[in-house]
Every structure is written in structure tokens, then in C-alpha cells.
Amino acid sequence: MTMEQSRPHSGSGADAQAAVPGSPSTQGRRVLVVEDEEAIAAGLCDALEHAGCSATSVADGSAALELIRSGDFDLILLDLMLPGMNGLDILQQMRRAGDNTQVLILTALGDEADLLRGFALGADDYMAKPFSPAELIARVEAQFRRRQANEPPPEIVQLTSDISVDLGRLEVHRNGETIPMTPREADIMAYLIKHKERVVTREDLLRDVWHYLNATIETRTVDIHIVGLRRKVEPNPATPVFVQTVRGKGYRWDQ
Description:
Elements: E1 30-34, H1 38-50, E2 54-58, H2 61-70, E3 75-79, H3 87-96, E4 102-107, H4 112-121, E5 125-128, H5 133-150, E6 156-158, E7 163-166, E8 171-174, E9 177-180, H6 183-194, H7 202-208, H8 221-233, E10 243-246, E11 250-253
């Protein structure tokens, strides 16, 4: 069930009043909180919702596993000590079923063996109670950034009703016309999309796209390629909306 805003909070859990809004990586993410202590679950859900996530909580281990099987969550905060079925058993059954949803273990236990078993079963991270709302959101954001970094951009990107890009075929389809892309233009676009939560510097592009060992060299190759990319993908290259310039910093993909 989704927790209500009037729930009590625990001093050992997250306090919604202290939580700070998260980054774009948390917006709209669905998080399942598996925690049997009502006050802690309430604080966790409030902090997550304050950061832009959609939070659902469940207190029983067996019920949690059923919800995981039927739901579509981006992250699971999983307490180890639960009625019905403990957190490690839930995690084991998830991984056996091929469910690779990211799992952040919550534990008040000092037994390192439980944590080691959790990681062996496929947990992504853990937090020891008590913890602050800021630490909670920082850990959650890190999980989403990690997943985003590991996800390749889609091969076909629909920019407008009249403009789409096929990164696999190196083609821009624009108003019924097919325009070839260079491999470097496609690499730049893919890199910007993959890192769209932040500003990408020229040095980033030189190091990670051109693979220069020294990214501080003087060259305008990045700027020239950006101009070429904009001519192909922007509705109006003179006023770009997708490949945006952040003055003094670099570029950012905005879609």
C-alpha cells in the first residue's frame, strides 16, 4: 500500500522535514519500501516522495515478494528482519527468478555475515540504521545514476514528429528525407543522451568520445562537430533545443 502523508516518523529513520529534493535521476522513479516498522517506513516514504519518487511500502516479507513479482519498481529498499519471510530470502528468490531490480538493503544488524550474504545474492548497496534523509537520498540517487550510466541510449530517438535519429544506421530522418550522420556525430549524441543528467564538458568529450589521453589540448574539433550535429537534428540549428550550450561549461542534452 502507498503510505499516507500523516504517518508518524521515527528518530532512527528518515525525517521528511530534513529531506532535500533529489536530482532529475529520482523524478518519477518507483521505489518499494519493505520495512515492518511503521514509523521508519513512513519516514522513508516521505523522504523519497519529497525527492520526486513514487513510494510504496509493505511490512510483510511474503506480501512483499508477491508485490515485487506483480509490480514494476525501479528500486527496492529491503529490510532484512521481516515477518513472513526475511529480506535475504526475498532477495534470493528475486534473483533466482531473473529479477534484476536494484536492491538497497536496510539493516540494523551488526553481523557482517548477513551483509556479505546479501551482496553474494545480488544486493547493490546497504544502509545501516539509523541514517539521515540526506544519506538516504544520496544513496538512492547514486543507484539511479549507476543504472543510467550502464544503460545504452536507444538506437532510435524520436526528437519531434518530423525528426528521428537512427543511431545504429547513422541516419537522421527529417521531413521525409534521410540524412547520413558521421560516426563521430552519432557517438557525441549517444554520449550526451547517456549523461543527460549533467553538463558534459569539452574535456569529457575529448577523453571519452575521441579517447584523447590529454583532454586539455587546444582544439575546436568538439565545437565543429557540435555545429554539424545541430544542423542535422535541431528543428532550428540557430536556436538549439536538444544540444544546449551551457556557457563556460559545455553541453547538455535536453529532451
